[in-house]
Amino acid sequence: MAARLPNNHDRTVVIGRTGTGKTVAALWHLSNYPIEREPWIAIDFKRDQHLNSIANAQEIDFDYIPGPKEDGLFIIHAIPSDAYGTNKDRSKLDQYFVKLWERENIGIFIDEGYAAGNSEGLELCLTQGRSKCIPMIICSQRPSWISRFVFSEASYIQYFPLNDARDRDTVEEFMPIEFDEEAPLEKHHSFYYDVSENEIYRFAPVPNMTAIRGVFGSKLRRKMVRI
Fold first, then answer.
1. Total structural domains within the chain
2. For residue 3, is it within any domain?
3. In what order do the strands lie in the sheet with 58-60?
4. Containing domain of residue 122, as a range?
5. Domain of 158: which CATH number?
6. Residue 61: alpha-carbon gap to chain centroid
7. Which of 6, 94, 102, 204 could form an SS bridge with 121, CB 3.0 to 4.6 Å?
């Protein structure tokens, strides 16, 4: 049976250490959404080269919310927080998530998830986003540091290898998997867990960024945004 992919009611978590392919996989999931008909906000904490290589994505700030007839990919270059969520963008970011929750019918992409801290606005989107059509894709290399709502509300979890035992323990709480250190995943391979079906699939590498950028390019049209 073929694995199901996320839709506009789902939240997807992609986890793995640096270099495993998690961000490329997350962007592949994003490219499968109809972003030519609906807006997505990408919160970019690490100035990711893959995310920022997507043509016609629009850079915005925390004052901008896409209008009801706008579509496409909008990127906010946020400031990373530490593990305790202390940085000057904390209040702005939390308030922004609340505004997205109020808007509805908008996707949220976050890379790196732990940098969002313990945001009440984010948890609002996670726990009530299904009914408001707020799909979410959240990447993290440190699952033990992120809100447990990220996992408890997940529709799909994609696992790439992790180094830290605490991070693997966190994943095992929400994903029925036993890690085999003697037979590790091949490079850029992953496990993909469909939560509602309680099914785990072994995924080969997703298409490369050249192919993914091509999909985005066919969906995003050039426009100007006033901020």
1. 1
2. no
3. 58-60, 72-77, 39-44, 107-111, 136-140, 11-15, 156-159, 190-194, 199-203
4. 11-218
5. 3.40.50.300
6. 18
7. 94
